[in-house]
Amino acid sequence: RITREEFAALQASGGLPFGQVPSLEVDGEILAQSSSILRYVGTVGGLHPAGDLLACARIDSLVCAEEDMFCGVSVSRYGPRFGFDMTDAFRENVRRSLNDEVLPRHLLFLEKKLGASDTGWLAGTEQPSIADFVFVPRLQWLVSGANDGIDVHLLDGYPKVTAMMAKLMALPEVVAYYQKHPPAAAEAGPLPRYLARDLARLMSMRCGRPDLEEINCAAATADANEASRRRLLLL
Fold first, then answer.
1. Which of 166, 172, 216, 228 could connect to 197 by a Cys-Cys bridge, CB 3.0–4.6 Å?
2. What distance, in Å, lies between the first and last C-alpha atoms of the chain?
3. Residue 199 is inside which H or E element, if any?
4. Residue 233 three-state SS
5. Cα–Cα distances in Å, from 13 out to 45, 63, 153, 178, 225?
6. Nearest to 232 by CA among 224, 221, 223, 207
7. pTM assigned to the model
8. What is the pLDDT of residues 67-102, one digit of tens each?
9. Strand locations in the chain (E)
10. How far apart are CA 34 and CA 229, in angstroms?
């Protein structure tokens, strides 16, 4: 992790492609945007089937659906970043619409996807894909109480969604990860405060690539097979 001072210096130097983190350095090249980093880590770790273009497209469509689903939540939290004067009254109205209309619509899509899945994973893959790994912590965070106006029981009407979440959290690799990296006492659970870090480590453990676990540390690491240097910056 970097300090705010280091972050400001990187912004000023032009070292961040879009002026924000997370960013991932691979062999001197800087990759930006969470979904891009997610796909890279998932592909290297074997959880994004690069050899099956149609399967990749199905998974990527779900990752895009997560971005759509949470767009309004992000805007309501960071209004000025998107050009909105987010007064308390405006935010309250937005959150009411999100809670009562927008989020349930997206959750119904997920419920139907899982209903059509023979494996219990969103993309119907044999093992969890990057789509499952990105949705679970985001949904946990959504109903954690961190977002005023969003009902903490919002997921209760979507049993297939909650079953998928429980299934992922029960994976031996995920259980082992949170035993090794317990959430801070102030957090109610494995929330995505460190989403990029957790996703990288969880996927590396799931796919049997412990060499990737330190992909998210502030120090560069070397892949024993590829002699590749990777560094993920988080604020």
1. 216
2. 6
3. helix 195-206
4. strand
5. 32, 31, 44, 36, 33
6. 221
7. 0.77
8. 999 999 999 988 888 888 888 899 999 999 999 999
9. 23-26, 29-32, 221-222, 229-233
10. 19
